[in-house]
Write a structure and sequence with these properties.
The chain is an alpha+beta fold. 30% of the residues lie in helices and 24% in strands. It is built from nine helices and 16 strands. The chain has a seven-stranded antiparallel sheet with strand order 7-6-5-4-10-9-8, covered by helices on one side.
Length: 357
């Protein structure tokens, strides 16, 4: 009994180490489970997927189950950091790594990609979602009756488009969508399927959506990452000076989109993300909104020197641009929005955004 309590205490101490204090797969805090064959600490949700990989991963509770000395020593010799260095060594920059609140299919396929298929242990030149052209059948929701019908989709890096076809492919694609404004996010509840994917794009300043799914979880996640991969290539082509990583300085590098119709300045963690981190409402000059160029004193540690200050009734926002041309374009675009009078619906938008803060 004393040895059992000793091993339990050792495991709990290991789980509190900074490198083990978050789930090895989704980043959830304080994992209570561990794979004693992989040597990692995981959360309850991710442990379920590991149980389905019984030939690769065996799961125990670090609080409730019995651990013998040999297994405890194995956990001490390994841990989340060692596993990450091996199983995630060559994860592509665009590949989506799930968060604790993400849907099950994303977490499951991430775990299977790492430990079952070992997709990231070698520096492969091509993966299914990086082949340049990705095509296959998806179930697409119809606009008229809401029924899902099987349609062929083709995503191509050669012309940066996503096309889909009806039954007779000889008539050409039903729609050709530019990658420029393309995004995808999993919406299983909205679509009514565990693998439901919402594809968003813009047409003439209007947002359009496609609702699709695939019965195979691996296939739908491949589609999701193929869209992110082609977006990455497109953005590297359109913005060759942009970097993949976040800027490790007081200012955090973010991707911004100005929605002039709804008077919203949205910002994202990366260019590939479909969901914004936040939004700034851009009202009119008469309501206390303004924009100007600047070089704020507090930005000396930042290598970008072309500042933009946006004043709102509530606070001041400071943004830095890489080049003077970008600075001028952003100021002109924001001034155009600020110069327009607010419409009745704009007041509702402003109030909703303030409530979200």
């Amino acid at each position: 009994m004393a040895n059992r309590e000793k091993n339990k205490k050792t495991l709990l101490e290991l789980a509190k180490l900074p490198e083990n204090s978050c789930c090895a797969d989704c980043g959830a805090a304080d994992p209570d489970w561990a794979s004693y064959t992989l040597g990692i600490f995981v959360c309850l949700n991710c442990s379920g997927t590991h149980r389905n990989l019984s030939t690769i991963s065996r799961i125990k509770s670090i609080r409730l189950d019995f651990w013998d000395d040999e297994l405890v020593q194995f956990m001490k010799s390994n841990g989340n950091r060692a596993a990450k260095n091996f199983y995630e060594k060559y994860v592509p920059v665009f590949y989506y790594q799930p968060q604790p609140d993400d849907c099950e299919v994303l977490r499951e396929q991430w775990i299977r990609a790492k430990y079952e298929r070992k997709e990231f242990t070698e520096e492969k030149t091509e993966r299914p979602y990086t082949a340049g052209v990705y095509e296959g059948m998806l179930w697409k929701k119809g606009k008229d009756n809401g029924q899902f019908l099987e349609r062929k989709f083709v995503l191509s890096v050669h012309d940066f488009t996503l096309k889909y076809y009806k039954e007779d492919e000889s008539k050409g694609p039903k729609a050709t969508i530019s990658v420029k404004g393309l995004n995808a996010t999993f919406q299983p509840e909205k679509i009514g399927h565990a693998h439901g994917l919402q594809i968003t794009y813009s047409v003439d300043d209007h947002t359009r959506n496609l609702f699709v799914y695939h019965k195979n979880g691996w296939e739908i996640v491949n589609w999701f990452n193929a869209i992110r991969a082609i977006r990455h290539v497109y953005l590297k082509t359109a913005f060759p000076t942009a970097s993949d990583g976040d800027q490790r300085e007081p200012f955090k590098k973010r991707w911004f989109i100005l929605d002039s119709l709804d008077r919203k300045l949205l910002y994202f963690k990366t260019q590939l993300d479909a969901i914004e981190l936040g939004v700034v409402f851009i009202g009119s000059e008469n309501h206390g909104y303004s924009v100007r160029e600047c070089v704020p004193k507090g930005t000396r540690g930042n290598k970008w020197k072309c500042g933009v200050i946006v004043e709102t009734p509530d606070r001041q926002f400071v943004f830095m641009c890489e080049q003077e041309r970008d600075q001028r374009e952003w100021v002109e675009a924001l001034k155009t929005v600020i110069s327009k009078p607010m419409m009745p619906q704009d007041y509702t938008t402003e109030a909703n955004i303030r409530r979200r803060r």
